[in-house]
Amino acid sequence: MLLTTDLVERLMQGLGGAANAPLGLAVSGGGDSIALLHLAVAAGLPVQAATVDHGLRTGSDAETAGVAATCSHLGVPHRTLRWHWDGKGNLQDQARRARLALLAEWARGQGLAVVALAHTRDDLAETFLMRLARGSGVDGLSAMAPDRLAQGIRWVRPLLDVARSDLRDWLQGQGIAWVDDPSNENDRFDRVKARRVLAALAPLGLDAARLAEVAGHLSQVRAALNVQTQHAAASLARLDRGDVVLDGAGFAALPDEIRRRLLQAAIQWIASAEYGARGPQIVQLRDQLAKGRSATLAGCRFLTAKGMIRITREAGKLQGLRVPIDALWDGRWHLHGPENKGLAVGALGAKGLLSCPDWRAAGLPRATLLASPAVWFGDDLIAAPLAGFGPGWQASCTMPPEPLSSAPLSH
To answer: Comparing 225 with 97, which gets the higher pLDDT?
Structure first.
């Protein structure tokens, strides 16, 4: 059995520089997260904890109250975050998204830049099997990211090299109780199936440690591909007022996988999409563009002209999308101007473009301008910065992450 000092050392190694930042803990009450909580306290880390109650099981209130009592005993500030499913969409996916959003909102409100999740080596191996069953490629089969940014929060998984059994053995040795979620025995869930398959494969040497090792190798492959994609973005792409513009000939000459990655990155940034397009769709798009054909996919338009490929937002996806003037619009745009009372941000659209007689001087395609941010007072257009309409107003677009952040800005 691993000693407390051993597990604390692994925790601190897994946290890396995140150990020096205000740290939040996602604590469900299960063995892994309870171990994370106690180890963080044993390490002397000043932490806060939150528990998401999805309200899907009888008794979840009592479990959440138990976590709160444990945190109180340890002197750790705790918050319960509640979610109610509206019965729409895939339950597991909706619950995952809600959990992430609730934790991110809580962390921001507490001034926490980092939230630690209690995933273990077993979670990594189970995820590998589930993605293998779905036919995932290198990215899907790569190891769970130990450190990533999402919704403005840094999410870390400091226990990915620790076995679930080691954590439970330690908890039992310390006399610390935890709650087992009954859904962990429900065969309806893919993760439960993967857990049982993993146990059956162990005699062949395909245990959690070995699958985690394979996932780690694929993670190295993914990192190498990302570097090549960054190089391609730096040499073949440029950023033009929220659009991505690619050199057509250079794009066609790239290896298929690098082209796919560039397109996925553009879709995720321009459409503010979490995952981009599905595999077969992106392959079809890649082949169409290589032949010089324009296309539409995943909320983006792909325009081919004069040897270039311009990727812009699809205006039709923005109908009815309006936010207050001081809010982020379409996941990327902020507008700044001389006034803000009663104003809103929405797409310029065809109606708005009619009020911009000099739009051609902006040097942007009509498709780009139709989807560009504009300032509205009811049905009256006040400003359209990208179309050169409305003095004193400016539109700023958030910068994309890698690999597109390697691309130069147009001047």
So the answer is: 225
Residue 51 DSSP class: E
* pLDDT surpasses 70 at 202: yes
Residue that is written with structure tokens 């780009």 in the block: 368
Closest CA to 135 of 20, 236, 316, 283: 283
Question: Which value, in Å, is the radius of gyration of the alpha carbons in the chain?
Answer: 24
Asked if 313 and 325 count as a contact pair (C-beta separation under 8 A), the reply is no
pLDDT at residue 166, rounded to an integer: 94
312 and 303 in contact (C-beta within 8 Å)? yes
| The dihedral sign for the CA sequence 277, 223, 190, 150 | negative
Strands of 147-150's sheet in order across: 78-82, 47-53, 23-26, 114-116, 153-156, 147-150
Taking the C-alpha atoms of residue 58 and residue 346, their distance in angstroms, rounded to an integer, is 43
Interatomic CA distance for residues 23 and 330, integer angstroms: 30
Per-residue pLDDT tens over the stretch 62-83: 888 899 999 999 999 999 998 7
Q: Is the peptide bond preceding residue 403 cis, with omega within 30 degrees of 0?
A: yes
- Under the banding of pLDDT at 50, 70 and 90, the label for residue 160 is very high
pLDDT tier for residue 403 given thresholds of 50, 70 and 90: very high
SS3 199: helix
Helices (H), ranges, 75-120: 91-109
Q: Are 383 and 356 in contact (CB under 8 A)?
A: no
Q: Look-up: residue for tokens 């190295």?
A: 220
Give the pLDDT score at 89.
61
